[in-house]
């Protein structure tokens, strides 16, 4: 099975420190992160944003493959994931990943979409990785 690699570097310690994140694929190269990007809305990314991107992508792909397996040949899936970080004692904890799916799949019923999407939510690898509440809101568009 494939493996994926990423790296992070942090220069300086604590709040004034500044970090960068890179991926082996080059999609991210020295992308800045730190206290400001995580808690103050400054330009750059943060771990929760990267988890949200991974979860949205994984769930959407799992749903796409499940829809194809169920006999659907065309459609568009748009997913957002909102990852919540909350204080936990002296630290922080990811407490929730809220998925919101907008699906346009010709010929599918709302109940079939619900069944397929709920199964994809429960079984996509990133959902299974997360140790938090995972919710799903579904909208069927035509």
Automatic annotation (TrEMBL):
User: What keywords tag this UniProt record?
Assistant: Oxidoreductase, Peroxidase
Query: Known Pfam families for this protein?
Result: OsmC (PF02566)
Give the residue ranges for region: Disordered: 1-23
Any one Gene Ontology MF annotation carried by this entry is:
peroxidase activity
InterPro entries, sorted: KH_dom-like_a/b, OsmC/Ohr_fam, OsmC/Ohrsf, OsmC_Ohr_Peroxiredoxin, Peroxiredoxin_OsmC
UniProt EC number: 1.11.1.29
Q: This protein's superkingdom? A: Bacteria
Write the protein's name: OsmC family protein
Q: Organism, per UniProt?
A: Novosphingobium pokkalii
């Amino acid at each position: 099975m494939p493996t994926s690699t990423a790296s992070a570097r942090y220069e300086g310690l604590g709040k004034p420190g500044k970090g960068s994140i890179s991926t082996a694929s080059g999609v991210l190269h020295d992308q800045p992160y730190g206290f400001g990007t995580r808690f103050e809305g400054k330009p750059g990314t943060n771990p929760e944003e990267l988890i949200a991107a991974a979860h949205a992508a994984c769930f959407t792909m799992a749903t796409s493959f499940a829809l194809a397996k169920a006999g659907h040949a065309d459609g568009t899936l748009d997913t957002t994931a909102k990852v919540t970080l909350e204080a936990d004692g002296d630290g922080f904890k990811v407490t929730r990943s809220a998925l919101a799916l907008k699906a346009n799949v010709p010929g599918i019923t709302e109940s079939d979409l619900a069944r397929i999407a709920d199964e994809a939510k429960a079984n996509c690898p990133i959902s299974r990785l997360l140790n938090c509440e995972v919710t799903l809101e579904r909208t069927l568009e035509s």
